[in-house]
Write a structure and sequence with these properties.
The protein is an alpha/beta fold. Helices cover 38% and strands 24% of the residues. The chain has seven helices and seven strands; from the N terminus they run H-H-H-E-H-E-H-E-E-H-E-H-E-E. The radius of gyration is 16 Å and the shape is globular. The termini are far apart.
């Protein structure tokens, strides 16, 4: 199966309707990720064909759960997941991809330029030191840290009535139990990623 076929079938399975232009952007991002990964070590997944499910479709399962949000922060974005695919799928969403690793943010800046993504800002900083002019109504991470650490380090960036939408593997019982007392889980949703035989969950966390 071609990358294009796998991506379009996966989008249909997730229930995301994207334009041909958006699909072309996702494929362009995939190509850049595979190219830069050869020298910058952006992801442990080396084969471009595996990146469709492991990175693109996995990231895009977040998008249906961002309803109501206007500003998204992707903490520890690495190679841009899930922030870049989410920004492509939701051009109305203002997305900040943040990582402390200069090599990774160099790639992210180049990707934003080449893909012409006006709704994406790249920040090189540690999340606990980041002080933007405006806070975020949605904050996500895919492989940044355990849930409690993620919330503690980035809670100063959450807008009033905002939500954390953390992407996790297996159901994180222990991580949820260790959340700071002033935060609570509002829901845990199982995610089904086409082409990926692994457990995935989305954890929504709100301030009490």
């Amino acid at each position: 199966m071609t990358h294009h076929a796998e991506l379009t079938q996966g989008l249909a399975a997730i229930g995301l309707e994207l334009t041909p232009e958006q699909i072309t952007l996702l494929e362009g991002y995939l190509g850049l990720l595979a190219k830069w990964n050869q020298t910058y070590n952006l992801t442990a997944i080396r084969e471009e064909e595996r990146m469709v499910s492991y990175h693109l479709l996995d990231s895009l399962t977040l998008v249906p759960h961002l309803a109501g949000g206007t500003r998204l922060l992707d903490v520890g974005s690495g190679g841009g997941m899930p922030g870049i695919p989410a920004a492509i799928a939701r051009p109305d969403l203002q997305v900040v991809v943040l990582d402390a690793n200069h090599k990774k943010t160099t790639f992210l800046r180049q990707a934003v330029i080449e893909l012409k993504l006006p709704n994406v800002e790249v920040i090189t900083d540690r999340v606990e030191a980041y002080q933007p002019a405006q806070k975020f109504d949605r904050i996500t991470s895919r492989a940044f840290s355990e849930l409690a650490e993620f919330v503690k380090l980035s809670k100063h960036l959450l807008a009033d009535s905002g939500q954390f939408v953390a992407m996790k593997g297996v159901y994180p019982y222990e991580e949820i139990a260790q959340l700071p007392e002033d935060f609570a889980v509002s829901e845990v949703l199982p995610l089904s990623v086409p082409g990926l035989d692994a457990e995935r969950h989305l954890v929504r966390v709100v301030a009490k």
